[in-house]
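Reviewer 2 asked us to include a model.

Predict the structure of this chain.
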Amino acid sequence: MTITGLKTNSAIEAEILETLSHSPYACSALKQLSGGFSNFTYRGHTLNPLPDGSTSVCIKHGEEYFAEWKHVTASTIRCDAEQAIIQQVTQTHLQRVIYGDVSVRVPRLYHYFPQRNIQVGEDVNDSKTLPDSLQSLSLSSAVSIGQGLGRWLASFHTWARSQAITDLPTVIKDNTQLFDMLTGHIYHIISEECKNKEIGQYCKDRLLEVAEEGVGVVHGDFTNRNVLIQTSHKKDGPHVHLAIVDWEACRYGDQSWDIANFIASVYVPHRAYSVEVADPMLQAFIQGYGILGDEQVFRVAIQTGMYIFLWSWYARGQLTEEKAEDLIQLARCLLIKGCERDREWVKHSFLGCLLDGAAAGNEN
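Predicted model (structure tokens):
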């Protein structure tokens, strides 16, 4: 669809500054932050300190097109859904949880301007994304981070399953556009890379089957790049602080997608770039998440394969031909073996500890 009325970045910034000017979050200047795919994200320097002493805020703004793909229309329901889920999660114990040396939290949302699709939230200062920190992490920190993220995600999913679908905000239930676009794109990539449309259709049919377990609200984009990391040198309390951000793809559905998304985002750096701490982090994440049923294990295998196809497609040009082909072959095996419910293959793959948990669960 042709987009009309595209705004310049300066026009968007002026609109944000004007909107905030009559609020406690009035800013003197904005700095656009990198990494935002669907929304425009800024750090705003406030004219006056906030009650907690902060002098900066994180601002997200959505248009009816993607920030990075301006030629593609996008419903701003994603902005309504994101603020709704953040408001809900930050009112629970999940807002900040401590697991040994690691704390995991969801940054607070201060205010939402629905008419302008502008969110004003907590600025996570002096942080890096998890991918930017992987190379510098010690083995013990990587394991602690993986364990903490796995436990937090399991707790979030458990809480989400406890929420009756009738009680969920409509905007979360209706926020399916990003997921539909993503999976459609992945199916296309699979068909192209495998030179076989039947494989993509097979996976699509398999995943369209109604999940019998693990259904509830999902983060929707639970990858390493949406985990911010801060380190603390204080003697008391956690040494590593993690923040889960970018909830605009949240929706109601199969929670296996969150698990698979994180697995793929961590395993690709290990496989393609030889990041040594990535695999121990991944294994700790799986162990931290806990027991999965057999059916969910195979769904995770399929979905991990789909995400690895996506990662290999985006990383094209950054990888050698040999590395790119290795990822594609791995992704193809995950798809096929997951669809075939090949327990032995999965057991001896990097996802083997998923089945360790499933076996333990089936013995009870």
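Residues 359-364 have pLDDT under 50 and may be disordered. The CA atoms of residues 108 and 122 lie 5 Å apart. We have added this to the supplementary material.
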